[in-house]
Design the sequence.
C-alpha cells in the first residue's frame, strides 16, 4: 500500500505571483481550513516535499530556480499550478518578459484555477495531487518490476 | 499495573531489550501523534489523525533514496543504533551512566551527520545541535549523580525498585531535568536545530540534506529517545508505578503546553538559562543531599 495520500508534504514557490495566491496557499494552513487534518505539511525544503505548488507565471529569472527545485525533489513528485497566472500566464501571457504558465517549463499535473485561487479549490487540488502521487508510485513500482523481469 | 510490573521484573535482560525495541516505536509514534493532535487543538485547529506520524514514516520509506554522500547514511544509522542501544540498556535495568553516555554518543553521530554534507543550512543546524547538547548534558549527568546519592546504585533496576519516593529527595534535580527535557523533546522555546514546527525556517536546518528513508530513520530514533526520556521521568516516582506512569504522561502534556506558549529563544539564552537552571536547581539539590548525609 502507498501512503502518499495520507501524508503529502508541500513545497510552495512563488514564481512571479502578485502574492494573492500565496496568501491563499498560506490561508489553507490556518485554523479555518487547516490542511494538516489531511496530514499536509508546508515544508520549506524540496528534499522533503512531495508536491510542488507554484504560484504566478514563469519568467527568465524564476525558470532556473523552478527547475532546480523540481530536480531536488525525490520521486514520486507532483507539480501543482496554483492560480490563473501559473496555469496559463493569464493577462501577463503576452508580456515580453513572461514565458507563460508553469507547464512551459515543467510537467504540470494539477491545474488549480482562480484569481486568486480560493482555499477550497487549492485543498481540492492538493487532494487530487495525492491521487496522482499514488498513481506515479504504482507506475514506478511496475516499471522497476518490469526491468527485473527483463 | 502491578501484574505488568511483576511480569516485567520476571523477564530476563534480553527479553526486556527485545520488548523495548519492538514496543518503543509504537508508543513513541502514538505519543507523537497525540502531541500533534493536542498541539493543533491548542491552536484552535482540528489537527491530523492520531496515527499521522506512522503515515509520515511509511511514506518517507517509500520515497526515492537521495544520498549526498555515503557517510550521511552511515552516521544516521549509527545515530539510530546508539539511541536504540541506550534505550535498551535503560529498560534492561543496567547502568544509568552507560545509558546516558551512549545517548550522548548517539547525539554526536547525529551532529556528524549534519556536518558531513555541504549545505550551510545543515552546518548551522549541526552547530545549534552541539550548543543544545552542551546545554542539556550537565543536567542529565547530575540526574544520575543525584539518583546514586539517594539509592546508592547506578543500576536502573535498583533505582526503579527503590521504595522511598525519589522525588522528595531530588525535587531540584527533577525540576532541572524537566527544564532540559524541553530541549530533548525538541520543543519550543529550545527547538533550535530540529523543530516540529516552522518547516520553512533555519530551525529545520539539521534535516536539510536528509530525504526519504533517512528522514524516517531520524524520526524513529526520536521516538525511541522520547520513550526512554519518559522512562527517566518514571524513575523519580518508581515507588508507585501508577503515579510514575501518570506523571510521565503529565510531563509530556506539560511540555506540549510550554511548546505552544513560548516563542523560540536565541541560542545564547538557551545555553545560559539551562546552565543557570542546572546550577541553581540541580547542583544545589546535590550539595544539600551531600550535607544531609
Sequence:
Amino acid at each position: 500500500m502507498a501512503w502518499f495520500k495520507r501524508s503529502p508534504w508541500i513545497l510552495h514557490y512563488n514564481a512571479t505571483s502578485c502574492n494573492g495566491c500565496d496568501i491563499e496557499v498560506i490561508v489553507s494552513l490556518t485554523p479555518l481550513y487547516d490542511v494538516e487534518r489531511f496530514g499536509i505539511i508546508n515544508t520549506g525544503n524540496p528534499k522533503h516535499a512531495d508536491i510542488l505548488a507554484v504560484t504566478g507565471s514563469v519568467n527568465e529569472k524564476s525558470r532556473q530556480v523552478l527547475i532546480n527545485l523540481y530536480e531536488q525533489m525525490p520521486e514520486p513528485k507532483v507539480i501543482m499550478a496554483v492560480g490563473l497566472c501559473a496555469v496559463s500566464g493569464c493577462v501577463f501571457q503576452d508580456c515580453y518578459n513572461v514565458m507563460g504558465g508553469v507547464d512551459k517549463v515543467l510537467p504540470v499535473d494539477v491545474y488549480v484555477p482562480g484569481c486568486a485561487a480560493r482555499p477550497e479549490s487549492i485543498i481540492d487540488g492538493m487532494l487530487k495531487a495525492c491521487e496522482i502521487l499514488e498513481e506515479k508510485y504504482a507506475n514506478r513500482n511496475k516499471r522497476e518490476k518490469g526491468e527485473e523481469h527483463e | 499495573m502491578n501484574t505488568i510490573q511483576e511480569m516485567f521484573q520476571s523477564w530476563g535482560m534480553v527479553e526486556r531489550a527485545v520488548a523495548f525495541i519492538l514496543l518503543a516505536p509504537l508508543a513513541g509514534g502514538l505519543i507523537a501523534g497525540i502531541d500533534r493532535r493536542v498541539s493543533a487543538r491548542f491552536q484552535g485547529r482540528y489537527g491530523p489523525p492520531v496515527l499521522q506520524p506512522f503515515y509520515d514514516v511509511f511514506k518517507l520509506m517509500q520515497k526515492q533514496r537521495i544520498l549526498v554522500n555515503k557517510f550521511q547514511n552511515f552516521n544516521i544509522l549509527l545515530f539510530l543504533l546508539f539511541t536504540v542501544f541506550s534505550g535498551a540498556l535503560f529498560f534492561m535495568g543496567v547502568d544509568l551512566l552507560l545509558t546516558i553516555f551512549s545517548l550522548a554518543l548517539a547525539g554526536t553521530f547525529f551532529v556528524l551527520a549534519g556536518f558531513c554534507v555541504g549545505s550551510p543550512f545543515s552546518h548551522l543546524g549541526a552547530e545549534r545541535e552541539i550548543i543544545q547538547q552542551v546545554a542539556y548534558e550537565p543536567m542529565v549527568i547530575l540526574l544520575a549523580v543525584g539518583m546514586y546519592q539517594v539509592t546508592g546504585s547506578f543500576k536502573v533496576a535498583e533505582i526503579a525498585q527503590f521504595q522511598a519516593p525519589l522525588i522528595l529527595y531530588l525535587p531540584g534535580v527533577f525540576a532541572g531535568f524537566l527544564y532540559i527535557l524541553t530541549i530533548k523533546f525538541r520543543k519550543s522555546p529550545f527547538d533550535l536545530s530540529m523543530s516540529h514546527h516552522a518547516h520553512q525556517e533555519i530551525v529545520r536546518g539539521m534535516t536539510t540534506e536528509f530525504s526519504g528513508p533517512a528522514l524516517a530513520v531520524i524520526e524513529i530514533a526520536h521516538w525511541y529517545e522520547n520513550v526512554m526520556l519518559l522512562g527517566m521521568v518514571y524513575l523519580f516516582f518508581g515507588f508507585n508505578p501508577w503515579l510514575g506512569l501518570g506523571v510521565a504522561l503529565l510531563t509530556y502534556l506539560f511540555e506540549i503546553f510550554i511548546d505552544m506558549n513560548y516563542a523560540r529563544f536565541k541560542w545564547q539564552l538557551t545555553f545560559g538559562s539551562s546552565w543557570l537552571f542546572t546550577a541553581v536547581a540541580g547542583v544545589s539539590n546535590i550539595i544539600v543531599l551531600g550535607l544531609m548525609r
Observations:
- Chain A touches chain B at residues 2-4, 6-7, 31, 34, 36-39, 41-45, 47-48, 50, 74-76, 137 (CB under 8 Å).
- The first helix of chain A runs from residue 20 to 27.
- Strands of chain A lie at 9-14, 41-43, 51-55, 58-59, 78-82, 98-100, 110-112.
- Chain A has four helices and seven strands.
